[in-house]
Amino acid sequence: MGELVVVLVGNLLTMIDMSELFGGRRRRARQAASSRGERVEFPCVLRDDDATSGRERRGWLAVGDGPATWRTPGAEPVAFDPGELTMQAVDQQAVTFHAAGGRTELRLHPDEAPLVLRALAG
Q1: Long-range contacts of range 61-69, CB-CB < 8 Å, 24 or more positions apart?
Q2: 55: Cβ–Cβ under 8 A, 6 or more apart, which residues?
Q3: Closest Cα to residue 30, out of 59, 78, 73, 64?
Q4: Taking a C-beta distance cutoff of 8 angstroms, is the pair 105, 46 a contact?
Q5: Hey, which residues does 60 pair with through a beta bridge?
Q6: Alpha-carbon distance 25 to 37, whole Å?
Q7: Nearest-CA neighbor of 68 among 96, 46, 90, 53?
Q8: Model's pTM, two decimal places?
Q9: Exposure of 97 by Cβ count < 10 A (0-12 exposed, 13-18 middle, 19+ buried)?
């Protein structure tokens, strides 16, 4: 009987997406902070001719009070103003946006994309 319980628990644990479970909590916290008007850093992937030298880089896009900024681990934030963004692709993990001229590609989690787009537009 004990072996059956261990097997069942093991199978259940493999079905749980832990990154989605804990990531959801972090996304809800960022959404709450944004709704309070605080400056929030959203994790994303950016490819931009100026900010990332045309390479894809993981980092954070900070929006809220003041201009939007982009930051990678260990680096100083730089101003980020991509202009109008157009959605190119979407799935459960990411929404991809391109700026006019193809100089910028931004990928965000689908839950956070509306918050970031509103902040960049305003």
Answers
A1: 61/106, 61/108, 61/116, 63/34, 63/39, 63/115, 63/116, 63/119, 63/120, 64/34, 64/37, 64/38, 64/39, 64/40, 64/119, 65/37, 65/38, 65/39, 66/39, 68/119, 68/120
A2: 47
A3: 64
A4: yes
A5: 43, 71
A6: 19
A7: 46
A8: 0.77
A9: buried
- Tokens representing residue 105 in the block: 């590609």
pLDDT > 70? residue 10: no
Any idea which residue has 């880089």 for tokens? 57
Distance in angstroms (rounded) separating the CA atoms of residues 10 and 49: 46
pLDDT score of 16 more than 70: no
Per-residue pLDDT at 12 exceeds 70: no
pLDDT digit string (tens) for 17-65? Answer: 555 555 678 889 999 988 898 999 999 999 998 888 889 999 999 998 8
| Helices of type H across 1-122 | 2-15, 18-35, 113-121
The token pair that represents 28 in the structure block? 């809800």
Whole-Å CA distances, 91 to 39, 56, 110? 27, 19, 8
* Mean per-residue pLDDT, 2-13: 62
